[in-house]
Amino acid sequence: MKNIMIAGAGVLGSQIAYQTALSGFNVSVYNHHIDTAERRIKALKSDYERDLHLTDKEFQQGLNNIKVITDDVATAVKDADLMIEALPESLELKEQFYEEVSELAPEKTIFASNSSTFIPSQLAPYTDRPEKFLNMHFANQIWKFNVVEIMGTSQTSPEVIEEATKFAREIKMVPVILNKEQHGYILNSLLIPLLASGLSLWAKGVADPAMIDKDWMISTGAPMGPFGILDMVGLRTAAQIERNAYAQTKDESHKEIADKMEQMIQEGHEGKESGQGFYNYPNPAFMDPDFLKH
Ligand code: NAD
């Protein structure tokens, strides 16, 4: 693989585009607003300088490999070996895009979606190449959290999975390959129940967040517990997940948890980003060495 197209240069697409370019591939970016795509990609400079100690020159070398940023799908895909789609999480929008790109892409192009919630067999039917379709799920801040979950359908060819795995390594990701389709992949299949159980213990009044985290951290050796993680994810997202669960199940306990978090949000406790959530930042109690001793 040499030429990689990224569709959608938002939070994740801009990161995938830059990481791929920095690793020496020719990158084309498709985004309906060209200027915001450019701005987002350039804004990664401070992160790469701080976390990976890139010099100005090295960062620029990466930028030089982004050959085109365009609002025209045909231009972006015309010689792509791999197209990674990171468009908004709307099935309707993705359907429209995959139908269009299927007509325009060369036969060789492998299609990969970065979707967090749609499994590949929901998206592959919109394309003309189910054997060349898979999901590649990157984590936010890919230069630091460098895992990519690779998940095909029963129709995806094994060579395509192999090629995607090789590409993931070439852009310095650790590939995690799923043998079967699974909503939430591996990480969220593990994480969401942990967070939901922690929140349920708190809402029922079984113990407070610090006590719950302390038990989890001492017993498993984990560097943080569910409430430390919830602060990192942000309470707005966590409350939304609980509201969605309530809408689906009508289980009142989800509504109760969402309301409790909503009240915290109203009081400015939105999580790590706002300086306070279940803990206060930048020095949350769970990071104090004494936290685990008593
Ligand atoms: P985002 O909203 O930040 O970015 C979407 C980009 O697509 C924007 O730049 C927008 O201008 C552009 N866009 C919107 N409609 C378009 C269209 N019709 N044609 C061309 N460009 C269009 O979204 P995101 O957070 O980067 O998420 C993108 C995908 O990545 C989603 O499928 C999401 O599930 C997945 N994902 C997100 C995260 C995350 O932490 N944000 C993590 C893993 C996976």
Q: Gist?
A:
The protein has helices spanning 11-22, 34-42, 45-52, 56-64, 73-77, 91-104, 120-123, 158-170, 187-203, 209-220, 226-233, 235-249, 252-266, and strands spanning 3-7, 26-30, 66-70, 82-85, 110-113, 133-138, 147-152, 174-178. By secondary structure, the chain is of the alpha/beta class. Helix 1 (11-22) packs across helix 4, helix 9 (187-203) crosses helix 11 (226-233) and helix 12 runs antiparallel to helix 13 (252-266).
List the helices and strands and how they pair.
Layout: E1 3-7, H1 11-22, E2 26-30, H2 34-42, H3 45-52, H4 56-64, E3 66-70, H5 73-77, E4 82-85, H6 91-104, E5 110-113, H7 120-123, E6 133-138, E7 147-152, H8 158-170, E8 174-178, H9 187-203, H10 209-220, H11 226-233, H12 235-249, H13 252-266
Parallel strand pairs: 1-2, 1-4, 2-3, 4-5, 5-6, 7-8
Antiparallel strand pairs: 6-7
Protein described:
- The chain has 294 residues and is α/β, with parallel strands linked by helices.
- The protein folds into 2 domains: 3-177, NAD(P)-binding Rossmann-like Domain (Rossmann fold); 187-278, Orthogonal Bundle (N-(1-d-carboxylethyl)-l-norvaline Dehydrogenase, domain 2).
- Helix content is 48%, strand content 14%.
- It is built from 13 helices and 8 strands.
- An 8-stranded mixed sheet has the order 3-2-1-4-5-6-7-8.
- α1 (11-22) links the parallel β1 (3-7) and β2.
- The termini are far apart.
- The structure holds nicotinamide-adenine-dinucleotide.
- Residues 8-13, 31-33, 36, 86-89, 93, 114-116, 137-138, 140 line the site of nicotinamide-adenine-dinucleotide.
